[in-house]
Structure formats: structure tokens, C-alpha cells
Amino acid sequence: MSNSNNESLEFLFHPRSIALAGITTANPEHWTRTFLNGLLELGFESPIYLVNPKGGEIEGVLLGWYLGIFDQSFNRLLRFS
Looking at domain 3-80, does it have CATH number 3.40.50.720? Predict the structure, then answer.
């Protein structure tokens, strides 16, 4: 694989941040919760943005919730990422 192909996949294998749209607080077995738990267990150190119009907390921890992809604060994050 050429160097330009390797660089084009860098964002996939080493993301600077991750947004989980549709994450739920109600169902701990939901795939988004499983994915979040995996990221946390592996020690993912980059920002994780949780997107859900209801907000909430997971396992007693209030996380940075965004109401949707059109939330102004979420859009500001995208511009500066």
C-alpha cells in the first residue's frame, strides 16, 4: 500500500475524537453503550462526544451530552477539531 493510502486511513485508525449519535441511557445493552464501554476500557484518550436529545448520565457520571448534530455547541466543536 502506498504512503498516500496509509495517510488517508489515519483518521480511521487514530481518530482525534469520536461522536456517538443516538447513545442511550435506558438500555445498557444497546450497541452505542457497548461501543462506549469498549472505548473507555481500552483507555481511549481523545474526546468522546455523546449525542442524544434527552441528555442524561451513564453509571452515575454526567457526560458531555449534545442535543443533536445541529446543537450549536456541537457544531463549534466540529469547526475546531
Answer: yes
Distance CA 54, CA 47 (A): 20
Domain positions in the chain are: 3-80
Per-residue pLDDT tens for 22-67?
888 888 898 988 998 898 899 888 888 788 777 777 766 555 667 6
Name the grid cell of 36: 462506549
DSSP assignment of the chain = --HHHHHHTHHHHS-S-EEEET--SS-TTSHHHHHHHHHHHTT--S-EEEE-TT--EETTEE--EES-TT-HHHHHHHHH-
